[in-house]
Amino acid sequence: MEQVLINGHQGNVFQDVPAYCGIYANSDWQMTENLREQCIPISGAISDLRIETNFAPGAGTSYVFTLRVNGAPSALTVTIANAATSGQDIVNSVNVVAGDIVCLQSQPVGGFPPFPAAVVPHWTLKWTAGVKESIVLGSCHTSVSGTVYAPISHNDEVNGTELESRQVIPTDGNLKCLFIDQDVAAGGGGYIYTLRLNGADTALTVTINDPNTTGNDVAHSVAVVAGDVVAMSMVRIAGMLVDPIVHYGMVFEPDIDGESLILGGTWNPLHDTNTEYNYLGMGWLGDSWTVTEASRDEMGQECTLKKLFMLLSAAPGAGNSYQFIGEIKCR
Hints:
Elements lengths: L1 E5 L12 E3 L16 E2 L4 E10 L4 E12 L2 E11 L3 E11 L4 E9 L11 E8 L5 E8 L6 E3 L3 E3 L10 E2 L4 E10 L7 E8 L2 E10 L4 E11 L4 E9 L7 E10 L77
Parallel strand pairs: 10-12
Antiparallel strand pairs: 1-9, 2-8, 3-8, 4-7, 4-9, 5-6, 5-8, 10-19, 11-18, 13-18, 14-17, 14-19, 15-16, 15-18
């Protein structure tokens, strides 16, 4: 099946050094690659890289955007140069296997000085795999303080409260093939990574003890239905001295072939009077609601969006309500 990966955090790339971002569950750009890497949970192909920026780089300068696999550049790349504000690579396709580590790199090129103009990129890719095999990707810091939680589709922070890390499933299927990759060993201890469903541990879990840095669970499958609530728990094993950056991925196998997940969530509260906007698929728990729609745009490609589910931490209250509307801008 084909899955469209919708992305585009409202953050500038760096004008003078390479920057990195996750390919799915977007967040801000970072200069350290392993902060934004994500772990592929099953064999497939990544293709159709499309990029759009809010400004042109400027005469004699450019940005080169490249899919990186296991710390090396791939053939999937887009250059946006001079007066251009968009580009695409719909020719190359990159095969990956379970356990591969991926991210998107931005490389400024030319004239130092002048630097390319500061730009905010939005991007989208396609994932292609076997029948009913879509992916959910994430990455974050763990914590030496004890049990923490993270959304399953995510790219940045953990939280000590599961309530603020939940995401809601919009369609029926199964979650399986959990792959975990730590950037370093746990320093004498370890971590237990577990999919949580409706506030309880599931059988889909991976334990990584020092000196190991990778692990997977390909034996278990967890059935989910529309409206179920999911999160990841990360339980520290006593003796751990460091808090690794963890890259993770799992497979979503939908009951209806061709469906995949777009998951979001934020701990930022809704305003009680203003009309506000946020990302369709969010990668950082602190992404705030804003009155400026353009600052929460993401980029997609041809697909059908349906089955919108919302989950609030509390009811609006007697006589009050919130209306949530998905908006699409056609280019």
